[in-house]
Amino acid sequence: MTADMPTLAAAPTLLALSLYTVVTSVTPGPNNMMVLASGVNFGIRRTLPHIAGISLGFGAMVAIMGLGLGTVFERWPQLNTVLRWIGGAYLLYLAWKIARAGTPDAPEGTTARPLGFLGAAAFQWVNPKAWVMALGAVATYLPPHPSWAAVTGVAVLMAAINAPCVGIWAGFGTGLRRFLTDPRRLRAFNLIMATLLVASLWPVFMT
Q1: % residues pLDDT > 90 (the chain)
Q2: In 10 A of CB 2, how many CB atoms?
Q3: Helical H runs in 124-182?
Q4: Angle between helices 128-141 and 78-99 (to 10 degrees)
Q5: Which helix (H) or strand (E) holds 82?
Q6: DSSP 28
Q7: What are the sequence ranges of the domains in the chain?
């Protein structure tokens, strides 16, 4: 057993990591705003690939960061600025798509498509909140030179906890579908969600 495994496996460390993941995953952010809107517009079943992409994509990010990618950003901090602008541009595009989403009962082919697994997984790499979560977990809950087993354990645990936390938002959105069958209400809801997604950029560009 490697030296870092007992530290990682200690109950207080696992509990702290779990609480950290719950709090950061369930609080509002780009992912949760998007799955909430997806739940309203497409229902829970069609949103499941989106949820899976978020959680597995985030878990992969944590693993890669834990295995050394974080040091690249420490050495070249200008990469953070590049990533920030790419992520901001993509979030604006996603907000535009949400604002233009159709009604739940619109004929096939007339509504926007939900974000799929690959798109949601790739989005984590330009999601500012996901970067903060991953870097925070790696810096706080892993030793300076962690083993593959330790990094994998953290990544798997965080992905497993993240999925139901994000799913709560999709479920809430699905519950709102009956109230939002009126096209005017749905249009207003989508515009609000698009606005909130854009507003999530404010702290990113103010730091």
Answers
A1: 33
A2: 14
A3: 128-141, 148-175
A4: 130
A5: helix 78-99
A6: S
A7: 31-205
pLDDT in tens, 132-157: 888 888 888 888 778 888 899 999 99
Which secondary structure element, helix H or strand E, spans residue 17, and what is its range? helix 11-26
| Rounded Cα gap, residues 201 and 182, in angstroms | 30
- The owner of tokens 């989005």 is 123
**Among the listed residues 162, 185, 146, the one whose alpha carbon sits nearest the alpha carbon of residue 55:** 162
Two tokens, residue 120: 């949601």
Element (H, E) at 179: none
Q: What does the alpha-carbon distance between residue 196 and residue 192 come to, in Å, rounded to a whole number?
A: 6
Do 126 and 90 contact (CB within 8 A), yes or no?
Answer: yes
Residue 29 CA to residue 179 CA, distance in Å, equals 23
What does the pLDDT read at residue 73?
A: 65
Closest CA relative to residue 116, chosen from 48, 162, 164? 48
